[in-house]
Amino acid sequence: MRISRFTLLLCTLALMLPLARMSSAEPPAESGFAPLFNGKNLDGWQTAKTTTPEPLQGKTEAFGGRFKVTEGTLVYDPAVKGNLYIETIKEFAKDVHIKLEFNPGPKCNNDVFLRGTKFDIAPGAKETKDVKEGEWQTLEIIVQGDKVEHKINGQVVRMAKAAPAASRFMLRAEFGAIQIRNIRVKE
C-alpha cells in the first residue's frame, strides 16, 4: 500500500495541532483560580498613587505606554520614565492566592504590593537571587490570616505579616523592563 505525500502531510499536521495549542502563553486551567489580567486590555485595573485613580477599562496602555498590553503580556517600557503604579479595582480582604508569570529585563527593579507587603522583583537581590533575566518564572503571593508568603518558582523566598485592612493588588513600574502574564487569583 502506497501513501501519498499529501496524505502524510495531512496526518503530520493533524498530530501537531494539539501540541501547538499546548505551547500558548495561556496557563492550564487551575481549580478555583480566576484571571486578574485578561491579556487583551487593562479591564479591572486602574491607575494608582495619583490624585484621582483613572479606570483603565478597555485601554491597552497606561501612563503614556509605561504599562502596555502586547500579545497577552503586560509589558513595562523602561524608555517611559517615572515611578508609576496600576492596581486592581477589586480589593482583597481575606485569604487570597495570586499567581503570575514574569520575565525580568536588564536592571529590572519593579514591585508588587498586596495587603501591606511589598515584594521587589530585582534579579540578584536577596530574595530573588535565583531569578534570571530574560527567563519566564512564576511568582505566588499567598495570604492566610495575618501571614503573607512569597514564592518564586515554587520555593518560599519570603514570609511577612499581612496588614488587616483590605487592599488592592498593585504593580509598580520603578526601574527597568519586565513582562508579566497570566495573573490569576483564588479567593
Explain this structure to me?
With 187 residues, the chain is mainly beta. The chain has one domain: Exo-inulinase, domain 1 (Jelly Rolls). It has one helix at residues 5-22; strands spanning 34-35, 45-48, 61-62, 67-70, 73-76, 84-92, 96-104, 109-114, 117-121, 137-144, 147-152, 155-161, 167-175, 178-186. Strands 1, 3, 4, 5, 7, 10, 11, 12 and 14 form a nine-stranded antiparallel beta sheet that branches. The radius of gyration is 19 Å and the shape is globular. The N and C termini lie far apart (59 Å).
Short account of what is shown:
The protein is mainly beta and about 190 residues long. Helix content is about 10%, strand content about 45%. It contains one helix and 14 strands; from the N terminus they run αββββββββββββββ.
- Write down the CATH class: Mainly Beta
Mean pLDDT: 89
CATH superfamily: Exo-inulinase, domain 1
From the 3D coordinates, which CATH architecture would you assign? Sandwich
Number of domains: 1
Given helix and strand content, the structural type is: mainly beta
**Element order: H for helix, E for strand:** HEEEEEEEEEEEEEE
Radius of gyration: 19 Å
Q: Determine the number of helices (DSSP H or I, runs of at least 4 residues).
A: 1
